[in-house]
């Protein structure tokens, strides 16, 4: 049974690691819709809306049937099934990385809720390692696929925040500073990453750097949103739980 990779460029790998990824852009759209709904039926109307942005007509339905035929040529084993009112991919959802990832994030959240930061950190490390680029990186995002990509992006950000939280809670302040600087640069209006960076700097004795980071955030938020930071610089002598007070 193949594995389906959507957390980055699309890829279909067989048990030997050989790629069976369809090449055409519309084939990849069809594949992505099926994989994101593994084990469920995707209606013809949803496919047509995604591919052509309009109500299903005879010509579009015929073209969709051709795409399904070619996809079946690529994915042997009868895993692309015809099932009213559309088609379904007959694979276990655990074969689809974009379906596994949210479940791992949920499991990590359960570990964090009971204070098991070590277990949370390990699960989140594995979950984030699944990403090789933006979700559905080489797939054209129509009206059906775009919400999936957005939701996965938000889940990835949340997982990165949780991972930093877990590592800071484990006392790994020095290890996370450079990663947090990169996250802050990539997501300058994300206060959680700023709060985590400032916490890490404060707890490694770099109070001046923490103050500069805080003032930089204050200036940015004032210029962009007309508001100030929603948190204060933490006291390094108090055990911190970074970001909890500013969750969205």
From TrEMBL:
DNA-binding region(s), residue ranges: 1-91
Species: Acrocarpospora macrocephala
PANTHER family: TRANSCRIPTIONAL REGULATOR REDD, TRANSCRIPTIONAL REGULATOR REDD-RELATED
InterPro entries the UniProt entry points to: AfsR-DnrI-RedD_regulator (IPR051677), BTAD (IPR005158), OmpR/PhoB-type_DNA-bd (IPR001867), Sig_transdc_resp-reg_C-effctor (IPR016032), TPR-like_helical_dom_sf (IPR011990), WH-like_DNA-bd_sf (IPR036388)
This protein's UniProt keywords: DNA-binding, Transcription, Transcription regulation
SUPFAM superfamilies: C-terminal effector domain of the bipartite response regulators, TPR-like
GO biological process, one term: regulation of DNA-templated transcription
Family the entry assigns: Belongs to the AfsR/DnrI/RedD regulatory family.
Gene Ontology MF term list: DNA binding
Transmembrane segments: none
Name of this protein: Putative actinorhodin operon activatory protein
Pfam family, one: Trans_reg_C
Domain OmpR/PhoB-type: 1-91
